[in-house]
What does this fold into?
Amino acid sequence: MLLAFFWAKKLVFRQRFLPRFFPSSPLIFADLSFGFGLGGLLFALLFLVFGALGWIRITASPSLAPANLLWLTLTFLVSALFEELLYRGLHLPVLASHWGLSPGIAFSAFLFSLAHLFNPHLNFLGLFVILIAGVLFALSYIETGALYLPVALHFSWNFFQSLFGFPVSGLTFPSLFKLEVTGPSIWTGGAFGPEAGLSGLVLLLLATAATILYGRYRRPSGMRPPHSSDPSAKNRP
It folds into this structure.
């Protein structure tokens, strides 16, 4: 993918718009920690709320073989890296450089949503929630000027969603809990998982608010986000 980015820059776009994906920064550990912790916190909260409402039933004792845990980690790490490099690393700067930041965010999120079009059990709400997830990941990129936070948040969103026993975008992976979800599908997302329900939308709104607050805390007072006007304007390779 990185080689494709290089040739696209040289032969297709003929301009140096692609930012450095993973620049050196003293805040790398903070970005990774925040992204990883936020995903875990959100799905722990969802698990507890669904349990309190009586919408889930644990059908098997908690267990996850080390080999399955390693496979789960690598699967979601590769997925997060691939999708963030493609949609936030490539699509967002390209679209923003031609159309402006807001249209760039919107259309890159739309393309991210369409990538899930053939996932099983998908419905319109699921497409919309995934689009909002694309906006969240773009926002986390804009707030920090690097892909550390988007990758960590994307990874932890999928990883902990699966770890707590929920389907991930209609797909079932090894999990710590074996769940039977019995609540209203409009909230739980049914067989597609929380991303096709209002619960997923609520989690994304909470994550967006937390990311904005983190961005304000992260940068010195009075400074704008690194890419507040144009993702291609700074951090050029």
Q: What stands out?
A: Residues 66-218 form one domain. The CA atoms of residues 21 and 89 lie 7 Å apart.
